[in-house]
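Order emerges. One example.
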Amino acid sequence: QSMDSTLHYIHNESDLSTNSSFSPEEEKKSKVQDVVPQALLDQYLSMTDPSRAQTVDTEIAKHCAYSLPGVALTLGRQNWHCLKDTYETLASDMQWKVRRTLAFSIHELAVILGDQLTAGDLVPVFNGFLKDLDEVRIGVLKHLHDFLKLLHVDKRREYLYQLQEFLVTDNSRNWRFRAELAEQLILLLDLYSARDIYDYLRPIAFSLCADKVSSVRWISYKLVSEMVKKLYMASTPTFVVDLMNELVEKFCRCHKWSGRQTFVFICQVKCLFIYILFCLFG
């Protein structure tokens, strides 16, 4: 009885403070569910009200974004319609910290919602985050593999054209961004065909191998070695032979000692030298 009276009080307060958000009758019906007390959900949804940020907590929208995957999991995908508008509001929030919070959890939300809802409601938000500030982009980059593996193959291939954009950052000194890109590309090798790896991932890998920061280069050496292994196991041997020849031409025969050293380091990773000898000389 005490809980009912408390929820009744919260519900009434929510109606007063968010009258502009929930006044239309149709909008109220679209947010009705039977998993948790409706008053509790209404109180949560009201956290995106700008007046709350001025009177309650300046970071209340960030707290709302942080809790959204948990709320979505509790309500289930059948009640996503209750959260969709709130999610889109948070995704377009002026504070980059709010968008960053959503970017770091969008892959978890995709698992909860499933293929169809992800393609319809999350992919547009994901595409927006890809063009956002570096503080937001790093969120989708750190879980790029986790998100792309949930998409349909055709939709996943569309992002091959955008991967190279991760090489460009607001601050060129942000080498950790490029290091994370190399780490993610290693995981992405399992999601794409040999043709896609050779055409799209190979140029990025070679660019990272020549990075100014040694930490980025070391991860890139592992990336190239995994790429050679992946192409070697593919049914078409042409790609791996061409990749080997390019490695020899770009690094082994480089007029700079740093380039020749790069070739040695790449061969050092997982005894790649054996693969090179076998592919080049049979």
Observations:
- The domain at 33-151 is CATH 1.25.10.10 (Leucine-rich Repeat Variant).
- Residues 77 and 113 are 5 Å apart (CA to CA).
- The chain has two domains: 33-151, 180-281.
- DSSP finds 18 helices and no strands in the chain.
